[in-house]
Amino acid sequence: MSQYLHLQNCLPCSLNTSATLTSPHLFLLSHDSLQPQPHPSIRRRSYRTTVFNRRLPPEPATHHSRTTAVVGHLYHPSTSPPSTSEVVVDMRTKKRHGETASPLPPAKRANKKSSSHASSPRGKNEKEKSQTLKEKEKLAILKERDLCNTKFAHEESLKDLGVLEGVKTLFDNIGWVKLLEWFDVGYAPTTVEFLSSLYLEEEELHFHLFKKACVLSTNTICRMIDAPTAETFGPNDPTHVDYQAKAFWRSITKEEKYDTGRLKATHIIHPVLRVTHRLLSNIIDSRHDTGNVTQQELYLLWCMIHPQSSRPNFGKYLCHKLLQVSNATKGKICCGSVITILGRHKSLNLRFPQNMGELKGYQYLDMVQLAKMKLFELSERGPGIRWLKGTRRTVYITESNQDILSLESPVEETNWTLDFEDIDSEADVDSEDADTGDDAQDQNEYMARFNTVDTELTSLRAEVVHLRGELTDQRAMLRLMYAHQREMGRTTVSLRDHIERLGSPPPTPPL
Known about the structure:
Layout: H1 2-9, E1 18-23, E2 26-30, H2 40-43, E3 68-71, E4 86-89, E5 96-97, H3 106-119, H4 121-143, E6 152-153, H5 155-161, H6 164-173, H7 188-196, E7 199-201, E8 204-209, E9 212-217, H8 218-223, E10 232-233, H9 245-253, H10 271-284, H11 295-305, E11 311-312, H12 314-327, H13 336-343, E12 364-365, H14 367-372, E13 376-378, E14 385-389, E15 392-397, H15 437-502
Parallel strand pairs: 3-4, 6-12, 10-11
Antiparallel strand pairs: 1-2, 2-3, 4-5, 7-8, 8-9, 13-14, 14-15
């Protein structure tokens, strides 16, 4: 009975009510008019309680003439259901017992609720708070990850290797040739701020730089390198009908084994394709470990060799990769330089301070970096290089036979295997994914030897220049000494002649 009194005390005192409690789950209220809002004490209950202020249709004279509402859960099964003059409302399903129609259709209730929630300032504030909380969580994760610069193309090194023209041809086939001209440095604060606030909405990239909200569309990013925007496709679009990944991989590597998760970049035979893949993985993917070939990179290589009317959209591919880096929870972040290039777009009107610390790491994909990646090795018999496939030599290139690396016209007729006989491909060990300690030690020794030789050569050149300077100074001093001696000799002779002409000295005058 105390439970019933508690429920009765929770009701508004202003209502003219007479309560009939039929069970612990049901109580009836009979009144002439109900207030639109319940008492606050009712709202604080564990279940949601609502009092409907709806006028019901007139009932027959044989029944009660007053409107009766039921507030609470469904009536208990042990009690009899209410009469036809009573409207029983289940507060969880919002359905009446005894009638088929609900007080308010569910669809209208849902639309009304969603529209009011979206338009209300409270809904907007909650959305902004949740987005800010998400940015803070992502910011904490990004600050724990390592940062490094992006490696861009170094034209002088590619020219010395004899692959510059071929690389330009492949990038030009998809309209991305000006990507080879990109270069900038990365900064830790801008990189973290950009990635923590990054999201893509309706082909527009939204991010923050220097606490300012910025927007760049995918077409705007395309125009930064004069890439095509019409008749293009993105990374999530279906591939071309003629593209067969396994057959294409076999045509450029002579590898029968095709594992989508372990396609080694060092298995690509042609040097032009190998360097092109490294540029894609460093600039577009911004990956630190570029030893594997992803499915999207393999498809881009196919598009470069088989140019079609529909070409890849540079803006969509770059935004897709930046979002992947932003959502990742581990691994090095190597897209800081690309973020700086995007932030310098004239439409954003941003100024980068001069006192920001630059990210560490190499900024170019030059000969030193390509040699460390074991794409080639220096020849021991002459001034040439040997390109490698895994750990095996493929072709020896010097200045006299660099035309071997030239591409045919059209490009798809190029011999991408260079007639290389891959006999022991099963025994090959990828140089960038050494499985044993000996392989890793050999690679480290090679890198140390390469760096040591380069350092010694630089120091020897500096020493030679220094010795030449000292020798020049010594020669000048000798000339000066000889000239001084000659002058002293001439002075001595002239003094002797002068003394002889004077004869004996004149007598001293008397005092």
